[in-house]
Amino acid sequence: SQQGEEDPQALSIQEGENATMNCSYKTSINNLQWYRQNSGRGLVHLILIRSNEREKHSGRLRVTLDTSKKSSSLLITASRAADTASYFCATGYNTDKLIFGTGTRLQVFP
Amino acid sequence: DAGVIQSPRHEVTEMGQEVTLRCKLISGHNSLFWYRQTMMRGLELLIYFNNNVPIDDSGMPEDRFSAKMPNASFSTLKIQPSEPRDSAVYFCASRSGTINQPQHFGDGTRLSIL
Fold it and tell me: Which one in A51, B34, B92, B111 has a CA-CA gap of 20 to 30 Å to B46?
Protein backbone atom coordinates (compact mmCIF):
# COMPACT_ATOMS: atom_id res chain seq x y z
CA SER A 1 0.00 0.00 0.00
CA GLN A 2 1.13 3.54 -0.61
CA GLN A 3 2.59 5.46 2.27
CA GLY A 4 1.53 8.95 1.32
CA GLU A 5 -2.00 10.20 1.28
CA GLU A 6 -2.81 13.60 -0.14
CA ASP A 7 -5.71 15.70 0.94
CA PRO A 8 -7.90 16.86 -0.67
CA GLN A 9 -8.21 14.45 -3.58
CA ALA A 10 -9.39 17.29 -5.79
CA LEU A 11 -9.32 21.07 -5.49
CA SER A 12 -10.86 23.74 -7.71
CA ILE A 13 -9.97 27.42 -7.34
CA GLN A 14 -9.91 30.66 -9.30
CA GLU A 15 -6.76 32.21 -10.67
CA GLY A 16 -5.08 34.39 -8.10
CA GLU A 17 -6.22 32.31 -5.16
CA ASN A 18 -3.87 30.22 -3.04
CA ALA A 19 -3.96 26.42 -3.17
CA THR A 20 -3.02 24.26 -0.22
CA MET A 21 -2.46 20.52 -0.44
CA ASN A 22 -1.63 18.23 2.44
CA CYS A 23 0.29 14.97 2.62
CA SER A 24 0.37 12.46 5.44
CA TYR A 25 2.77 9.55 5.71
CA LYS A 26 3.24 6.64 8.05
CA THR A 27 6.90 5.95 8.79
CA SER A 28 10.21 7.74 9.32
CA ILE A 29 11.62 9.69 6.41
CA ASN A 30 14.93 11.11 5.15
CA ASN A 31 13.14 13.58 2.94
CA LEU A 32 9.78 14.41 1.45
CA GLN A 33 9.42 15.48 -2.14
CA TRP A 34 6.61 17.14 -4.09
CA TYR A 35 6.05 16.45 -7.77
CA ARG A 36 3.63 17.84 -10.37
CA GLN A 37 2.11 15.85 -13.21
CA ASN A 38 0.38 17.48 -16.13
CA SER A 39 -2.10 15.40 -18.08
CA GLY A 40 -0.35 12.90 -20.33
CA ARG A 41 3.11 13.82 -19.07
CA GLY A 42 5.64 12.51 -16.60
CA LEU A 43 6.15 13.78 -13.08
CA VAL A 44 8.19 16.93 -12.59
CA HIS A 45 10.08 17.51 -9.38
CA LEU A 46 9.06 20.68 -7.53
CA ILE A 47 10.76 20.74 -4.17
CA LEU A 48 12.57 18.47 -1.69
CA ILE A 49 12.52 19.06 2.04
CA ARG A 50 14.80 17.08 4.32
CA SER A 51 13.59 15.58 7.58
CA ASN A 52 15.52 18.15 9.64
CA GLU A 53 13.94 21.08 7.79
CA ARG A 54 10.60 22.64 8.69
CA GLU A 55 9.91 24.99 5.79
CA LYS A 56 11.19 25.56 2.28
CA HIS A 57 10.34 28.06 -0.45
CA SER A 58 10.75 28.00 -4.20
CA GLY A 59 9.16 30.84 -6.15
CA ARG A 60 5.41 30.69 -5.50
CA LEU A 61 5.74 27.36 -3.69
CA ARG A 62 6.00 26.94 0.06
CA VAL A 63 6.41 23.54 1.67
CA THR A 64 6.20 22.78 5.36
CA LEU A 65 7.09 19.58 7.14
CA ASP A 66 5.97 18.43 10.58
CA THR A 67 7.70 15.16 11.38
CA SER A 68 5.92 14.87 14.74
CA LYS A 69 2.60 14.73 12.89
CA LYS A 70 4.05 12.93 9.88
CA SER A 71 2.57 15.51 7.57
CA SER A 72 3.55 18.08 4.97
CA SER A 73 1.75 20.82 3.12
CA LEU A 74 2.32 22.42 -0.26
CA LEU A 75 1.10 25.98 -0.74
CA ILE A 76 0.91 27.52 -4.19
CA THR A 77 0.38 31.26 -3.94
CA ALA A 78 -1.31 33.43 -6.57
CA SER A 79 -2.28 30.40 -8.63
CA ARG A 80 -2.40 30.46 -12.42
CA ALA A 81 -4.31 28.39 -14.93
CA ALA A 82 -0.98 26.76 -15.84
CA ASP A 83 -0.79 25.32 -12.30
CA THR A 84 -3.63 22.95 -13.22
CA ALA A 85 -2.16 19.48 -12.68
CA SER A 86 -1.97 16.61 -10.22
CA TYR A 87 0.39 17.03 -7.30
CA PHE A 88 2.06 14.12 -5.51
CA CYS A 89 4.13 13.83 -2.38
CA ALA A 90 6.79 11.14 -2.13
CA THR A 91 8.84 9.91 0.79
CA GLY A 92 11.96 7.84 1.21
CA TYR A 93 13.77 6.39 4.20
CA ASN A 94 17.28 4.92 4.09
CA THR A 95 16.64 3.62 0.61
CA ASP A 96 16.59 4.86 -2.96
CA LYS A 97 12.93 3.91 -3.18
CA LEU A 98 10.30 6.65 -3.15
CA ILE A 99 6.76 5.90 -2.07
CA PHE A 100 4.28 8.17 -3.81
CA GLY A 101 0.97 9.34 -2.46
CA THR A 102 -2.35 9.20 -4.22
CA GLY A 103 -2.21 12.78 -5.48
CA THR A 104 -4.31 15.93 -5.44
CA ARG A 105 -5.93 17.06 -8.67
CA LEU A 106 -5.79 20.85 -8.83
CA GLN A 107 -7.96 22.79 -11.26
CA VAL A 108 -7.33 26.51 -11.59
CA PHE A 109 -10.02 28.40 -13.49
CA PRO A 110 -9.06 31.56 -15.39
CA ASP B 1 19.92 19.16 -21.99
CA ALA B 2 17.72 16.28 -23.07
CA GLY B 3 15.58 14.78 -20.37
CA VAL B 4 14.68 11.14 -19.86
CA ILE B 5 13.44 9.75 -23.16
CA GLN B 6 10.98 6.89 -23.35
CA SER B 7 9.78 4.98 -26.39
CA PRO B 8 7.31 4.22 -27.68
CA ARG B 9 4.89 6.82 -26.27
CA HIS B 10 1.93 4.60 -27.04
CA GLU B 11 1.70 0.86 -27.59
CA VAL B 12 -1.39 -1.15 -28.41
CA THR B 13 -1.01 -4.89 -28.80
CA GLU B 14 -2.89 -8.11 -28.33
CA MET B 15 -2.55 -10.26 -25.29
CA GLY B 16 0.16 -12.87 -25.49
CA GLN B 17 2.49 -10.60 -27.45
CA GLU B 18 5.89 -9.52 -26.20
CA VAL B 19 6.16 -5.84 -25.30
CA THR B 20 9.44 -3.94 -24.92
CA LEU B 21 9.57 -0.49 -23.40
CA ARG B 22 12.70 1.60 -23.71
CA CYS B 23 14.27 4.31 -21.63
CA LYS B 24 17.28 6.57 -22.15
CA LEU B 25 18.64 8.10 -18.97
CA ILE B 26 19.90 11.63 -18.55
CA SER B 27 23.64 11.68 -19.21
CA GLY B 28 25.60 11.29 -15.99
CA HIS B 29 22.73 9.86 -13.97
CA ASN B 30 23.53 6.59 -12.23
CA SER B 31 20.14 5.41 -10.90
CA LEU B 32 17.22 4.22 -12.97
CA PHE B 33 13.68 3.55 -11.75
CA TRP B 34 10.75 1.89 -13.54
CA TYR B 35 7.23 2.75 -12.36
CA ARG B 36 3.72 1.77 -13.38
CA GLN B 37 0.76 4.12 -12.98
CA THR B 38 -2.89 3.08 -12.95
CA MET B 39 -6.04 4.70 -11.66
CA MET B 40 -6.61 1.89 -9.20
CA ARG B 41 -3.12 1.51 -7.75
CA GLY B 42 -1.52 4.88 -8.41
CA LEU B 43 2.22 5.06 -9.03
CA GLU B 44 4.08 1.86 -8.15
CA LEU B 45 7.82 1.24 -8.24
CA LEU B 46 8.58 -1.91 -10.22
CA ILE B 47 12.38 -2.09 -10.10
CA TYR B 48 15.41 0.16 -9.76
CA PHE B 49 19.08 0.02 -10.69
CA ASN B 50 22.15 1.73 -9.30
CA ASN B 51 25.18 1.83 -11.59
CA ASN B 52 23.54 -0.68 -13.96
CA VAL B 53 22.94 -3.22 -11.16
CA PRO B 54 19.37 -4.18 -10.21
CA ILE B 55 18.95 -3.35 -6.53
CA ASP B 56 15.30 -4.04 -5.76
CA ASP B 57 12.85 -5.83 -8.04
CA SER B 58 10.27 -6.59 -5.38
CA GLY B 59 7.70 -4.49 -7.22
CA MET B 60 7.86 -6.53 -10.41
CA PRO B 61 4.42 -8.17 -10.63
CA GLU B 62 5.54 -11.60 -11.79
CA ASP B 63 8.04 -13.46 -13.91
CA ARG B 64 6.46 -12.16 -17.09
CA PHE B 65 8.19 -8.85 -16.36
CA SER B 66 11.92 -8.35 -16.79
CA ALA B 67 14.17 -5.29 -16.90
CA LYS B 68 17.74 -4.80 -18.04
CA MET B 69 20.38 -2.10 -18.26
CA PRO B 70 22.74 -3.16 -21.04
CA ASN B 71 24.73 0.04 -20.51
CA ALA B 72 24.82 3.08 -18.27
CA SER B 73 22.46 5.15 -20.39
CA PHE B 74 19.78 2.73 -21.54
CA SER B 75 17.20 0.38 -20.04
CA THR B 76 14.44 -1.89 -21.26
CA LEU B 77 11.36 -3.27 -19.56
CA LYS B 78 9.96 -6.36 -21.19
CA ILE B 79 6.62 -8.08 -20.68
CA GLN B 80 6.26 -11.57 -22.13
CA PRO B 81 3.56 -12.69 -22.53
CA SER B 82 1.45 -9.59 -22.07
CA GLU B 83 -2.00 -9.65 -20.46
CA PRO B 84 -4.85 -7.08 -20.43
CA ARG B 85 -4.19 -6.33 -16.74
CA ASP B 86 -0.76 -5.03 -17.73
CA SER B 87 -2.44 -2.04 -19.37
CA ALA B 88 -1.09 1.08 -17.67
CA VAL B 89 1.28 3.99 -18.15
CA TYR B 90 4.88 2.96 -17.56
CA PHE B 91 7.41 5.59 -16.51
CA CYS B 92 11.12 5.49 -16.11
CA ALA B 93 13.01 8.02 -14.04
CA SER B 94 16.69 8.66 -13.56
CA ARG B 95 18.63 10.28 -10.78
CA SER B 96 22.17 11.32 -10.02
CA GLY B 97 23.82 11.12 -6.64
CA THR B 98 22.08 9.99 -3.50
CA ILE B 99 18.62 9.73 -1.97
CA ASN B 100 18.43 13.48 -1.36
CA GLN B 101 18.40 14.19 -5.08
CA PRO B 102 15.20 14.41 -7.16
CA GLN B 103 14.15 11.87 -9.75
CA HIS B 104 13.65 13.00 -13.34
CA PHE B 105 10.80 11.31 -15.16
CA GLY B 106 10.19 10.57 -18.81
CA ASP B 107 6.78 11.20 -20.33
CA GLY B 108 5.83 7.54 -20.12
CA THR B 109 4.61 4.79 -22.39
CA ARG B 110 0.85 4.28 -22.46
CA LEU B 111 0.39 0.54 -22.90
CA SER B 112 -2.90 -1.04 -23.89
CA ILE B 113 -3.18 -4.83 -24.06
CA LEU B 114 -6.30 -5.98 -25.90
Answer: A51
Q: Which residues of B touch A4 (CB under 8 A)?
A: none
> Which candidate, B78, B76, B72, B69, places its Cα nearest to that of B23?
B76
Test mutation, A29, A98, A99, A100, chain B, max B CBs within 10 A: A98
pLDDT tens, residue by residue, A87-108? 999 998 888 899 999 999 999 9
